[in-house]
Amino acid sequence: MRRRSAFAAATLALAGTALAQPPQRLRIGFAVGYAPFSEVGSDGQLQGFEIDLARALCERLQLQCLPVILDFDGLIPALQSRKIDAIMASMAITIEREQVIAFTSPYYYSPARMIAARDSRLNVSPSGLRGKRIGVERGTVHERFLGSVFKDSQIVRYGTQDQVFLDLKSGRLDAALADAAIAEFGFLNKPDGRGFGFIGPDFREPQYFGKGIGIGLRQADAAGLGRHLDEALAALRGSGALKALNDRYFGIDLVSPPH
Length: 259
Prior knowledge:
Elements lengths: L1 H8 L15 E6 L8 E2 L5 E2 L1 H13 L2 E6 L5 H6 L5 E2 L7 H4 L3 E2 L8 E6 L15 E5 L3 H9 L4 E5 L2 H10 L4 E5 H9 L7 E8 L2 H4 L6 E2 L4 H18 L1 H9 L10
Parallel strand pairs: 1-4, 1-5, 8-9, 8-10
Antiparallel strand pairs: 2-3, 6-12, 7-10, 7-11
Helix pairs in contact: 2-9
C-alpha cells in the first residue's frame, strides 16, 4: 500500500500538447534504491538525478510522464509487454541488450567498482576473490561480468541494490560490485558506508559494460520516440541544463563523454 501511494504522489505529470510522434502519455520504468539517481524519499516522493532528468525531458517534449516502479530485472520484460514505454534506471547500453531493445544516446557514464571494508585487504582478481561472497543486483551487467570473470567466487544475487549494500554492511558479504557513482553517492557517502571503500581497479570492459547509460525503448519506437528523446537530450546538453542537473547531485562530471 505504501508503494502504491508513493507511486501516485510521485507522478511526473506535466500537462501540455504532445508532439505528433511521441505518445501523449509516456510511462517510464524506474528501479528505485539507486540514490541519488532514483529513490523514494521520506515524503513518499520519487527523487533523484534520473527523476529530474525525466521531468526535464517530459517538459521539453510536452508529454505527460508517469513513473512505474519495478525491480531492475523486470524492466525489459515490462517494456516488451507494453506495460511501460521507456526505461530510466541506470541501464548500460550493451550489445546483448541492443539485440532486444533500443537505446537513446548515453546521458551519463560511470565505471563499475568493487566495494568492501577498508581493512579487508582483498586482492581484486579472480584468484584473489576465489570463494569470497560477492553481492550484486540481479539482471545487471555487473552480474554478467561477475559470472564470466569471477567464476570461482560465490556470487550472491539480490533484487535491489539497497539489499546488496545492507548485506555488505551487516557482514554477510565480503564485497559487492556496482556502478561506481551509485556506490559512492548511494552508500559510501552515507553513514551506512563508514568503514567501506572502493577496492581494485575501474572495470570498463565494453563487452560487459557497454557504451554508457541510455534510455531503453522498444525497437519499434527508436525512429519516432527515440529520435525525439535524443533531440531533447541534445538540447539539454547544449543548453547546460544536463550539466546543471549533474552538478546538483554529484561532485564529479558523469555526463560528459569519457576521453
